[in-house]
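Shipment paperwork, digital attachment
Item: protein structure file
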Amino acid sequence: MRTWEEDYKTGELPWDTGVPDHHLVSLVNNGRIRAGATLEIGCGTGTNAIWLSNGGFRVLGIDIAPTAIEMARSKADGRSNLDFRCMDFLAEDLGSKFDFIFDRGTFHIFDSADERNSFVNRVAESLVPGGLWLSLIGSTEGPPRGHGPPRRNARDIVGALEDHLEIVELRTSEFEPDIPSSARAWICLARKRMEPAQISTRLH
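Attachment content:
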């Protein structure tokens, strides 16, 4: 089984578009996500983290692949509000809390419900109260395909999130909206809960 490090060493990076994510840019530009302490999980070569840092965000980008972090650091140009670290998000202490967490295709790599729950629990633990998480997730919508991002259905997402985060928005889109053949994606924006979700009830 190939590893992420092998992909970066060979340059087989279909997810690395070299431009900041369209959905992230849109949500920042319309003011729904505001500058603050930010974590990007699975930052790759740093494109999105660098774009955020240019907009006044204080960004920590982490990735499990050392080569990805080397590539990101080479593009960071000494920015004081940007740091890249090789880290395992599920296993290592980040040392701080964040106003905003972003991942483009990290949540969906986990096949088991327990792994997805653990990932979201870690996201919630890493956010300040009311902090936001934006995730792009491979969708079960669209035609059959033999390659591209893993597919998760809406139940997979809601089941992992509801105990930890309030879903602000969950909608269907594409990873690259300007490309007609782009893989379908869920755009999930969620907020750390200020109070627990209440028990589902039925009308009496």
